[in-house]
Amino acid sequence: MAQLTLKKLGIAASLSLVLVAAGCSSSDSKNESVEEKLDYSITGIEPGAGVLQKAEKATEEYDNLNGWEVEASSSGAMATALGEAIDREKPIIITGWTPHWMFQKYDLHYLEDPKGVFGKSEEISTIARKGLAKDKPEAYKILDQFQWKTEDIEKVMLDIKDGKSPSDAASAWIKDNKDKVDEWTKGVQKGDGDTVKLAYVEWDSEVASTNVLKQVLEDKGFKVKATPLDNAVMWQAVAKSEVDASVSAWLPLTHGDLYKKYKDQLENLGPNLEGAKIGLVVPDYMDIKSIEELKPKK
Ligand code: PBE
To answer: For the chain, does the N or the C end have fewer beta carbons within 10 angstroms?
Structure first.
Protein backbone atom coordinates (compact mmCIF):
# COMPACT_ATOMS: atom_id res chain seq x y z
CA MET A 1 0.00 0.00 0.00
CA ALA A 2 2.69 2.36 1.02
CA GLN A 3 4.60 1.38 -2.05
CA LEU A 4 1.64 1.98 -4.29
CA THR A 5 1.18 5.48 -2.98
CA LEU A 6 4.84 6.19 -3.58
CA LYS A 7 4.59 4.86 -7.08
CA LYS A 8 1.54 6.98 -7.75
CA LEU A 9 3.31 10.00 -6.39
CA GLY A 10 6.26 9.21 -8.59
CA ILE A 11 4.08 9.11 -11.68
CA ALA A 12 2.37 12.33 -10.68
CA ALA A 13 5.72 14.00 -10.05
CA SER A 14 7.24 12.98 -13.35
CA LEU A 15 4.05 13.90 -15.14
CA SER A 16 4.11 17.41 -13.74
CA LEU A 17 7.78 17.72 -14.65
CA VAL A 18 6.88 16.89 -18.24
CA LEU A 19 4.13 19.47 -18.12
CA VAL A 20 6.44 22.13 -16.71
CA ALA A 21 9.03 21.35 -19.36
CA ALA A 22 6.39 21.51 -22.09
CA GLY A 23 5.13 24.80 -20.68
CA CYS A 24 8.63 26.24 -20.75
CA SER A 25 9.37 25.23 -24.26
CA SER A 26 6.13 26.58 -25.64
CA SER A 27 6.68 30.06 -24.18
CA ASP A 28 10.37 30.11 -25.02
CA SER A 29 10.19 28.15 -28.20
CA LYS A 30 13.00 28.03 -30.70
CA ASN A 31 10.23 27.98 -33.30
CA GLU A 32 8.95 31.35 -32.26
CA SER A 33 9.83 34.01 -34.82
CA VAL A 34 11.90 37.04 -33.88
CA GLU A 35 8.79 39.15 -34.37
CA GLU A 36 6.82 37.00 -31.93
CA LYS A 37 9.63 37.12 -29.40
CA LEU A 38 9.57 40.92 -29.70
CA ASP A 39 5.80 40.92 -29.43
CA TYR A 40 5.83 43.21 -32.50
CA SER A 41 7.16 45.97 -30.34
CA ILE A 42 9.92 48.58 -30.68
CA THR A 43 11.46 49.91 -27.46
CA GLY A 44 11.17 53.68 -27.63
CA ILE A 45 12.20 56.70 -25.54
CA GLU A 46 10.45 59.94 -24.51
CA PRO A 47 7.26 60.72 -26.47
CA GLY A 48 8.59 64.19 -27.43
CA ALA A 49 11.71 62.83 -29.14
CA GLY A 50 11.92 63.14 -32.91
CA VAL A 51 13.23 59.59 -33.23
CA LEU A 52 10.13 58.26 -31.49
CA GLN A 53 7.84 60.13 -33.84
CA LYS A 54 9.79 58.85 -36.84
CA ALA A 55 9.56 55.30 -35.51
CA GLU A 56 5.79 55.69 -35.31
CA LYS A 57 5.81 57.02 -38.85
CA ALA A 58 7.85 53.98 -39.90
CA THR A 59 5.17 51.63 -38.56
CA GLU A 60 2.73 53.44 -40.86
CA GLU A 61 4.94 53.72 -43.93
CA TYR A 62 6.31 50.20 -43.99
CA ASP A 63 3.49 47.77 -44.82
CA ASN A 64 5.52 44.99 -43.25
CA LEU A 65 5.34 46.79 -39.88
CA ASN A 66 1.58 46.43 -39.88
CA GLY A 67 0.45 45.72 -36.30
CA TRP A 68 3.76 46.82 -34.74
CA GLU A 69 3.82 49.22 -31.79
CA VAL A 70 6.42 51.69 -30.57
CA GLU A 71 6.50 51.65 -26.78
CA ALA A 72 7.31 55.11 -25.44
CA SER A 73 9.35 55.18 -22.23
CA SER A 74 12.46 57.15 -21.36
CA SER A 75 16.05 57.16 -22.60
CA GLY A 76 17.15 55.58 -19.32
CA ALA A 77 14.55 52.81 -19.45
CA MET A 78 15.47 52.10 -23.07
CA ALA A 79 19.16 51.81 -22.16
CA THR A 80 18.32 49.43 -19.30
CA ALA A 81 16.14 47.28 -21.56
CA LEU A 82 18.92 47.18 -24.15
CA GLY A 83 21.53 46.14 -21.57
CA GLU A 84 19.28 43.40 -20.19
CA ALA A 85 18.47 42.04 -23.64
CA ILE A 86 22.17 41.94 -24.52
CA ASP A 87 23.04 40.14 -21.27
CA ARG A 88 20.65 37.36 -22.26
CA GLU A 89 21.19 37.59 -26.04
CA LYS A 90 17.50 38.29 -26.53
CA PRO A 91 16.13 40.19 -29.50
CA ILE A 92 15.37 43.87 -29.07
CA ILE A 93 14.76 46.78 -31.42
CA ILE A 94 15.29 50.25 -30.02
CA THR A 95 14.94 53.82 -31.23
CA GLY A 96 18.60 54.77 -31.25
CA TRP A 97 20.86 57.62 -32.16
CA THR A 98 24.46 58.62 -32.77
CA PRO A 99 26.33 60.06 -30.92
CA HIS A 100 25.62 57.62 -28.11
CA TRP A 101 27.76 55.60 -25.71
CA MET A 102 25.79 52.45 -26.59
CA PHE A 103 27.82 52.08 -29.78
CA GLN A 104 31.03 52.02 -27.73
CA LYS A 105 29.68 49.60 -25.14
CA TYR A 106 27.85 47.12 -27.37
CA ASP A 107 28.01 45.68 -30.90
CA LEU A 108 25.00 47.23 -32.57
CA HIS A 109 23.82 48.29 -35.99
CA TYR A 110 21.17 50.48 -37.54
CA LEU A 111 18.49 48.72 -39.56
CA GLU A 112 18.56 49.90 -43.16
CA ASP A 113 15.73 52.27 -43.88
CA PRO A 114 15.08 52.13 -47.65
CA LYS A 115 12.13 54.52 -47.37
CA GLY A 116 14.27 57.13 -45.64
CA VAL A 117 11.84 57.71 -42.78
CA PHE A 118 14.75 58.43 -40.42
CA GLY A 119 16.58 60.66 -42.91
CA LYS A 120 20.25 60.32 -43.72
CA SER A 121 22.76 62.37 -41.84
CA GLU A 122 21.64 64.75 -39.11
CA GLU A 123 23.41 67.64 -37.42
CA ILE A 124 23.11 68.82 -33.86
CA SER A 125 22.64 72.56 -34.06
CA THR A 126 22.83 75.48 -31.70
CA ILE A 127 19.79 77.73 -31.55
CA ALA A 128 19.56 81.07 -29.79
CA ARG A 129 16.87 83.56 -28.97
CA LYS A 130 16.58 86.62 -31.13
CA GLY A 131 18.63 89.51 -29.82
CA LEU A 132 21.15 87.41 -27.90
CA ALA A 133 24.03 88.59 -30.10
CA LYS A 134 23.28 92.17 -29.12
CA ASP A 135 22.42 91.54 -25.45
CA LYS A 136 25.18 89.10 -24.52
CA PRO A 137 27.75 89.26 -27.33
CA GLU A 138 30.51 87.39 -25.49
CA ALA A 139 28.30 84.46 -24.52
CA TYR A 140 26.88 84.48 -28.04
CA LYS A 141 30.39 84.21 -29.45
CA ILE A 142 31.11 81.06 -27.41
CA LEU A 143 27.80 79.50 -28.46
CA ASP A 144 28.53 80.36 -32.07
CA GLN A 145 32.07 78.93 -31.94
CA PHE A 146 31.08 75.75 -30.09
CA GLN A 147 31.56 72.67 -32.24
CA TRP A 148 33.03 69.25 -31.66
CA LYS A 149 33.08 65.70 -32.96
CA THR A 150 31.28 62.45 -32.28
CA GLU A 151 34.29 61.00 -30.43
CA ASP A 152 34.40 64.06 -28.15
CA ILE A 153 30.79 63.91 -27.04
CA GLU A 154 30.87 60.10 -26.79
CA LYS A 155 33.83 60.29 -24.42
CA VAL A 156 31.79 62.49 -22.08
CA MET A 157 28.73 60.27 -22.47
CA LEU A 158 30.69 57.13 -21.72
CA ASP A 159 32.20 58.66 -18.57
CA ILE A 160 28.70 59.52 -17.37
CA LYS A 161 27.44 56.05 -18.21
CA ASP A 162 30.37 54.60 -16.25
CA GLY A 163 29.40 56.54 -13.14
CA LYS A 164 30.93 60.02 -13.31
CA SER A 165 28.58 62.91 -12.58
CA PRO A 166 27.80 64.95 -15.70
CA SER A 167 29.77 67.89 -14.33
CA ASP A 168 32.82 65.74 -13.46
CA ALA A 169 32.74 64.14 -16.90
CA ALA A 170 32.53 67.60 -18.46
CA SER A 171 35.50 68.95 -16.45
CA ALA A 172 37.60 65.91 -17.31
CA TRP A 173 36.93 66.40 -21.02
CA ILE A 174 37.63 70.14 -20.82
CA LYS A 175 40.92 69.48 -19.03
CA ASP A 176 42.01 67.03 -21.75
CA ASN A 177 40.89 69.21 -24.67
CA LYS A 178 42.20 72.67 -23.95
CA ASP A 179 42.95 73.29 -27.62
CA LYS A 180 39.31 72.76 -28.61
CA VAL A 181 37.98 74.87 -25.79
CA ASP A 182 40.46 77.63 -26.77
CA GLU A 183 38.89 77.67 -30.23
CA TRP A 184 35.43 78.12 -28.79
CA THR A 185 36.51 80.94 -26.50
CA LYS A 186 38.79 82.65 -28.99
CA GLY A 187 38.39 86.42 -28.87
CA VAL A 188 35.95 86.24 -25.97
CA GLN A 189 36.24 88.79 -23.19
CA LYS A 190 35.48 87.64 -19.66
CA GLY A 191 31.76 87.55 -18.93
CA ASP A 192 30.99 89.86 -16.03
CA GLY A 193 28.74 87.55 -14.06
CA ASP A 194 26.03 87.73 -16.72
CA THR A 195 23.59 84.82 -16.52
CA VAL A 196 23.18 82.62 -19.57
CA LYS A 197 20.06 80.46 -19.64
CA LEU A 198 20.41 77.20 -21.53
CA ALA A 199 17.61 74.76 -22.23
CA TYR A 200 18.15 71.10 -23.04
CA VAL A 201 16.38 67.75 -23.02
CA GLU A 202 17.61 64.95 -20.78
CA TRP A 203 18.88 62.74 -23.58
CA ASP A 204 22.34 61.33 -22.87
CA SER A 205 23.94 63.31 -25.72
CA GLU A 206 22.37 66.59 -24.66
CA VAL A 207 23.24 66.10 -20.99
CA ALA A 208 26.87 65.74 -22.11
CA SER A 209 27.00 68.73 -24.48
CA THR A 210 25.08 71.07 -22.19
CA ASN A 211 27.30 70.25 -19.21
CA VAL A 212 30.47 70.90 -21.19
CA LEU A 213 29.22 74.19 -22.57
CA LYS A 214 27.96 75.25 -19.15
CA GLN A 215 31.42 74.82 -17.66
CA VAL A 216 33.14 76.55 -20.54
CA LEU A 217 30.85 79.54 -20.06
CA GLU A 218 31.36 79.46 -16.29
CA ASP A 219 35.13 79.31 -16.73
CA LYS A 220 34.79 82.53 -18.73
CA GLY A 221 32.95 84.22 -15.86
CA PHE A 222 29.32 83.65 -16.78
CA LYS A 223 26.65 82.27 -14.52
CA VAL A 224 24.75 79.50 -16.25
CA LYS A 225 21.30 78.18 -15.61
CA ALA A 226 20.69 74.94 -17.53
CA THR A 227 17.07 73.79 -17.49
CA PRO A 228 15.92 70.35 -18.66
CA LEU A 229 12.68 70.56 -20.61
CA ASP A 230 10.51 68.47 -22.85
CA ASN A 231 11.62 68.75 -26.48
CA ALA A 232 8.72 70.85 -27.77
CA VAL A 233 8.92 73.09 -24.71
CA MET A 234 12.64 73.60 -25.25
CA TRP A 235 12.06 74.89 -28.79
CA GLN A 236 9.25 77.08 -27.59
CA ALA A 237 11.36 78.49 -24.73
CA VAL A 238 14.05 79.66 -27.19
CA ALA A 239 11.45 81.03 -29.63
CA LYS A 240 9.70 82.97 -26.85
CA SER A 241 13.01 84.23 -25.43
CA GLU A 242 12.41 82.50 -22.10
CA VAL A 243 15.91 81.07 -22.37
CA ASP A 244 18.96 82.28 -24.27
CA ALA A 245 19.98 79.20 -26.20
CA SER A 246 20.06 75.46 -26.66
CA VAL A 247 22.68 73.16 -28.18
CA SER A 248 20.13 70.33 -28.54
CA ALA A 249 18.48 71.07 -31.88
CA TRP A 250 18.59 68.07 -34.21
CA LEU A 251 18.23 68.98 -37.88
CA PRO A 252 17.21 68.79 -40.63
CA LEU A 253 14.79 65.97 -39.92
CA THR A 254 14.62 64.93 -36.25
CA HIS A 255 13.23 68.27 -35.05
CA GLY A 256 12.28 69.48 -38.53
CA ASP A 257 8.63 70.13 -37.60
CA LEU A 258 9.61 72.21 -34.58
CA TYR A 259 12.17 74.13 -36.62
CA LYS A 260 9.57 74.92 -39.25
CA LYS A 261 7.20 76.14 -36.59
CA TYR A 262 9.69 78.41 -34.81
CA LYS A 263 12.38 79.29 -37.33
CA ASP A 264 11.27 82.90 -37.72
CA GLN A 265 11.29 83.43 -33.97
CA LEU A 266 14.81 82.22 -33.23
CA GLU A 267 18.29 82.16 -34.67
CA ASN A 268 20.01 79.02 -35.97
CA LEU A 269 23.74 79.27 -35.26
CA GLY A 270 24.51 76.16 -37.31
CA PRO A 271 25.83 72.73 -36.41
CA ASN A 272 27.84 72.06 -33.26
CA LEU A 273 28.22 68.43 -34.34
CA GLU A 274 27.99 66.85 -37.78
CA GLY A 275 27.38 63.23 -38.71
CA ALA A 276 24.62 62.54 -36.20
CA LYS A 277 22.01 59.91 -36.97
CA ILE A 278 18.74 58.43 -35.76
CA GLY A 279 17.09 55.11 -36.56
CA LEU A 280 16.09 51.67 -35.41
CA VAL A 281 19.01 49.88 -33.78
CA VAL A 282 19.53 46.18 -33.00
CA PRO A 283 22.34 44.10 -31.44
CA ASP A 284 24.61 42.51 -34.06
CA TYR A 285 23.63 38.99 -32.93
CA MET A 286 20.19 39.66 -34.41
CA ASP A 287 20.43 38.38 -37.92
CA ILE A 288 18.55 41.22 -39.55
CA LYS A 289 19.74 44.07 -41.75
CA SER A 290 16.76 46.06 -42.90
CA ILE A 291 13.45 47.30 -41.54
CA GLU A 292 11.87 45.64 -44.56
CA GLU A 293 12.83 42.18 -43.32
CA LEU A 294 10.50 42.39 -40.33
CA LYS A 295 7.22 40.50 -40.65
CA PRO A 296 3.79 42.00 -40.03
CA LYS A 297 1.69 40.87 -37.07
CA LYS A 298 -0.32 37.78 -37.84
N1 PBE B 1 17.43 62.00 -29.68
C2 PBE B 1 18.64 62.50 -29.08
C3 PBE B 1 16.63 63.20 -29.87
C4 PBE B 1 17.58 64.19 -30.34
C5 PBE B 1 18.76 63.88 -29.50
C6 PBE B 1 17.81 61.39 -30.95
C7 PBE B 1 16.84 61.08 -28.78
C8 PBE B 1 15.32 63.08 -30.63
O9 PBE B 1 15.02 62.02 -31.16
O10 PBE B 1 14.58 64.05 -30.70
So the answer is: N
Q: Which fold has domain 34-120+280-293?
A: D-Maltodextrin-Binding Protein; domain 2 (3.40.190)
Q: To which CATH superfamily is domain 123-276 assigned?
A: Dipeptide-binding Protein; Domain 3 (3.10.105.10)
Is the whole model's pTM more than 0.85, yes or no? yes
Q: Could you tell me how far CA 230 lies from the centroid of its own chain?
A: 14
CA-to-CA distance for 263 and 259, rounded, in angstroms?
5
> Cβ–Cβ contacts within 10 Å for residue 176, how many?
12
Along the 298 residues of the chain, how does pLDDT read in single tens digits?
444 443 334 444 444 444 444 444 444 567 899 999 999 999 999 999 999 999 999 999 999 999 999 999 999 999 999 999 999 999 999 999 999 999 999 999 999 999 999 999 999 999 999 999 999 999 999 999 999 999 999 999 999 999 999 999 999 999 999 999 999 999 998 887 889 999 999 999 999 999 999 999 999 999 999 999 999 999 999 999 999 999 999 999 999 999 999 999 999 999 999 999 999 999 999 999 999 999 999 8
Our answer on whether the CB atom of 45 is closer than 6 Å to any ligand 1 atom is: yes
Identify the CA nearest to 207 among candidates 230, 226, 223.
Answer: 226
Shortest-distance Cα residue to atom 6 of ligand 1 = 97
Task: Report the nearest atom of ligand 1 relative to the CA of 52.
Answer: 9
| DSSP single-letter state for residue 117 | T
224 close to 195: Cβ distance less than 8 angstroms: yes
Q: Quick one: which atom of ligand 1 is closest to the CA of 96?
A: 6
